[in-house]
């Protein structure tokens, strides 16, 4: 009996079953955490785009106020009108950057003196 107690007391390390249980628990925690993390990343991109849109809207309003309601003159040629607006506002000194990129995959628009943002269309996943 003393020999059996001595073997149990001197036992070091973990059994295979204990390691499998720990790995299973870690796997379950990862399975719960990873989708939540990806949602946070998606939402942060949308929030960044909304903040950038707000900055451009404010710059455009200040430009119009300083120039008796007139809109900035956009350069001719091909290209996105929003990008041309941002460049014109940068040239006029109302923005610090001449390029604003979408972070969430959506698109910025500029038409008739109004700026907007269209989020990336998400297609429903099968089974939802």
UniProtKB/TrEMBL annotation:
Region (Disordered): 105-128
UniProtKB keywords: Membrane, Methylation, Transmembrane, Transmembrane helix
Spans traversing the lipid bilayer: 12-34
Coiled-coil regions listed: none
Pfam families linked: N_methyl (PF07963)
Polar residues: compositionally biased ranges: 119-128
The keyword Membrane belongs to this UniProt entry's keyword annotation: yes
PANTHER family found in the cross-reference section: GENERAL SECRETION PATHWAY PROTEIN G (PTHR30093), TYPE II SECRETION SYSTEM CORE PROTEIN G (PTHR30093:SF44)
Name of the protein in its database record: Prepilin-type N-terminal cleavage/methylation domain-containing protein
């Amino acid at each position: 009996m003393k020999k059996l107690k001595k073997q149990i007391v001197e036992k070091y390390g973990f059994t295979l079953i204990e390691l499998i249980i720990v790995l299973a628990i870690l796997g379950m925690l990862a399975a719960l955490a990873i989708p939540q993390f990806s949602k946070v990343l998606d939402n942060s991109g949308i929030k960044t785009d909304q903040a950038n849109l707000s900055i451009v809207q404010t710059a455009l309003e200040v430009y119009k106020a300083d120039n008796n309601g007139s809109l900035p003159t956009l350069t001719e040629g091909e290209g996105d009108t929003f990008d041309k607006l941002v460049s014109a506002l940068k040239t006029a000194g109302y923005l610090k950057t001449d390029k604003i990129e979408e972070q969430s995959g959506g698109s910025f628009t500029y038409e008739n003196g109004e700026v907007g943002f269209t989020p990336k269309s998400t297609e429903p996943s099968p089974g939802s």
